[in-house]
Amino acid sequence: MRGLGGEPGAPRREEPETEALGTPVIRDEVDEPDPDPGADAPAPRNPTLLDQMGGISGIVASGVPVVVFVVAQAVAGNLVASIVAAVASALLVAGWRLTRGEAVQPALSGLLGVAVCAFIAWRTGEAKGFFLLGIWTSLIYGGVFLLSVIVRRPLVGVIWHLVNGEGQAWRRDVAVRRAFDIASLAWVVVFGARFVVQRWLYDSVYADTWLGWVRIAMGVPLAAVAAAVTVWAVRRSRQAQARPGTRPHSRRAR
Fold first, then answer.
1. How buried is 193 (Cβ within 10 angstroms: 0-12 exposed, 13-18 middle, 19+ buried)?
2. Are the beta carbons of 209 and 77 closer than 8 angstroms?
3. Residue 146, number of CB atoms within 10 A of its CB
4. What is the dihedral of CA 112, 113, 114, 115, to 10 degrees?
5. CA 100 to chain centre
6. Chain segment 3-45, per-residue pLDDT in tens
7. Does position 81 have pLDDT exceeding 60, yes or no?
8. Is the pLDDT of residue 69 over 60?
9. Which runs of consecutive H residues, i.e. helices, occur in 3-78?
10. CA 162, CA 180: separation in Å to the nearest integer?
11. Which residues pair with 18 in a beta bridge?
12. pLDDT score recorded for residue 253
């Protein structure tokens, strides 16, 4: 049998479907859902302890009022003028961070601390009274860090994992806990050295001459050393979490 319009036995060619008037049928295409725009977006980064403190700029800015007070006292030798200059600088720092959209909490905390120090200096009538709060605060901070190591809950690790929402399972890893022990003890040394040296200067005849400058020298530089040890401890914790074949912080403390 001869096929329509072709050779015998040739397969019949299928014509595309048409409507009655010969117009090709246009089939509706199903639109594929657009990919989730947030699927490839990086997960939001939890604020670190440094972020909570306002970053490097926040730490540096918190020491500006102290520097201003020391310089003003050395130049003018007037307690009231030095107090006014320190408080004014703290207000300027808070306003500057506010206009830049940066964290204002560190600046406000610094402003409150400067106000208290200025009040103590005004009440005692001596410039060295401006540093009295910081001296005893160093003793308290150092004691708290030391106690945390004694009870096997080093404060550096507790604060770091609390701020980052990672829980406290890290304490079951002996190596990680020891790293945070060392970091916490580094802060004990910093605060202890500040208290011992500055408390001795406060009662000495060198208080008016050297106490302020020593306060500045033992501020950010010593804190930077302890911060470097803290960064090392945090990296040890991250390495323990990324250890292949084991769950994060799975080794139990003895």
1. middle
2. no
3. 17
4. 50
5. 18
6. 444 555 555 555 555 444 455 555 545 555 555 554 455 555 5
7. yes
8. yes
9. 49-52, 55-62, 64-76
10. 14
11. 24
12. 44
Tell me the three state secondary structure of residue 47: coil
> Alpha-carbon distance 2 to 13, whole Å?
14
How far apart (Å, rounded) are the C-alpha atoms in residues 53 and 18?
A: 72
Which residues does residue 8 pair with via DSSP β-bridges, in sequence order? 2
The gap between the terminal CA atoms of the chain, to the nearest Å, is 93
Cα–Cα–Cα angle for 120, 126, 132, rounded to 5 degrees: 45
Tell me the two tokens of residue 197.
């040296």
Describe the crossing of helices 55-62 and 220-241 by its angle, rounded to 10 degrees: 150
Name the phi and psi angles at 5, rounded to 5. Answer: 65, 25
pLDDT at 164: 77
Q: What is the pTM of this model?
A: 0.71
Percent of the chain with pLDDT over 90: 41
Question: Amino acid identity of 42?
Answer: P
Q: Is the dihedral of CA 226, 228, 233, 238 positive or negative?
A: positive
CA nearest to 113, candidates 79, 137, 144: 137
- At residue 151, the pLDDT reads 94
